[in-house]
Amino acid sequence: MADYDLAIIGGGLNGVGIARDAAGRGLRVILLEQGDLGAGASSASPRLIHGDLAELERRHFLRVRSALAERDVWLRIAPHVVRPARFAIPAHSDQRPPWQLRSGLLLYDKLAPRNALPLSATIDVTHHPLGNALKRPFGTAFEYSDCVVDDSRLVVLTAADAAARGAVIRTGARCTRAERGKTWRLATIDRGFRQVITARALVNATGAWTASVAETVLRVPPPKVAIMQMSQIVVRRLFDGDNVYVFQNSDGRLVFASPYERDFTLIGTAVHAFKGDPAIVAVAASDVAYLCDAANRYFRERIEAVDVVRTLSGANMVTVAARRQRDGVITLDHGRGKAPLITIFGGDITTARLRAERAVGKLTPFYPMSARWTARSPLPGGDFSWRRFDDEVDGARERWRFLDEDQARRLVGAYGTTVRAVLGDARQRGDLGPAFGPELTGAEVRYLMNHEWARFPDDVLWRRTKLGLTMPARDREALSAFMANSTAPR
Ligand SMILES: Cc1cc2nc3c(=O)[nH]c(=O)nc-3n(C[C@H](O)[C@H](O)[C@H](O)COP(=O)(O)OP(=O)(O)OC[C@H]3O[C@@H](n4cnc5c(N)ncnc54)[C@H](O)[C@@H]3O)c2cc1C
Asked: Does residue 9's CB lie within 6 angstroms of at least one atom of ligand 1?
């Protein structure tokens, strides 16, 4: 008998989503990730959970509708890491006419199945706080609702749920060879040790590595694909308030400027074809200039390359046929004496749960498994209504009186109700162990190492949290020493 029913190569959102779905349907699952969970394209997304106005403009109404239904699902199952926001599009005389924007947003409202979020509206920004950050000529903006997600935490929480349902999650485990017969025999280098495992079916969810893994690891004909790169920049906060600004750029693309970790603004995205090693995706100076120019057309405060405090960039594979498809593509290959192989290409964050459900559904002819379930079950810590987020924050401040408002918001936004497991019975900050910067504590780091597969400082500073943005160098060194001296379970 094979060790596992399903082995998954790749710990991005696609891989962990499939692991969660399959484990919850009763399959014995192992996931192999060569580095850290979400360290590829999944932590460099535009962080939007949305119907996607660009898809609306392409008249893909059914896709917009289905994505808006998924938006509701994410709000329900992940109310801590997925938060509603108001998006504002300043009307620009050179771009889409205001009537087109307004009618597009009315249609967007109509396509949302349950309209749980406020409807779109027209705003006179000359007399509205939204206008404060904008250049003078903008008199009108259109506001609508969508959601913002902490993408890398979504990956980790999905993996945690998969593990809670029995999936084995191995980080630092690279799959180097997969021999195909009636079952798969996988050779891995797991934290330096060679191991062999067997599985009845295999998923290639390796993002930008998909074709090279097909060719060199699975030794099957590589699919016809293109690799695309997506880049974003982080600058000091350019505006107050929680709105996301949506700018119509001169090339017709939409550029988003979102509040990021309280004191920063995230601006993205620049997208183009990518060549090279997906493990080293550097942001081109031309992408930085493109995003600064887009922001400078709208915001009063000018930004330039020197103002960029961090760049985020990822690459992923798209099939040539599906270059513009947000849903991604799933293929299944099998035959007599050929164990099933599923390959998953690209796709956005919003539709990832649905994609995982469809991918696992393709295996129903091969195994008995229980029905679809992932839309109804909250991710770890997400067992509260998104409307009660502020109550959760107040509750945390009452229970752990040493937390200030910002600290409580960050912790509830990251862990939801699981914050109890992070802070325990602490009565004062000192009970949480050493401090690394003003926010991070030994207790949180230990939790991340023990329950969320964090192994290195970057895993904590950039993916489990974003505290790397503000942590002083000497605290990073202390964190590094602390983690080196703490052992995480396998
Ligand atoms: C150009 C572009 C535009 C995008 N636009 C959007 C957008 O508008 N909205 C949106 O929501 N999303 C967008 N995305 C999508 C999003 O960022 C990700 O593509 C999505 O999260 C799915 O990622 P993934 O799991 O396929 O890949 P990844 O997150 O890259 O994960 C693949 C993982 O496989 C691992 N791996 C590779 N080889 C091996 C091996 N041999 N053994 C073990 N592990 C291995 C890698 O280390 C990596 O962690 C865009 C992506 C791109 C590239």
From this structure: yes
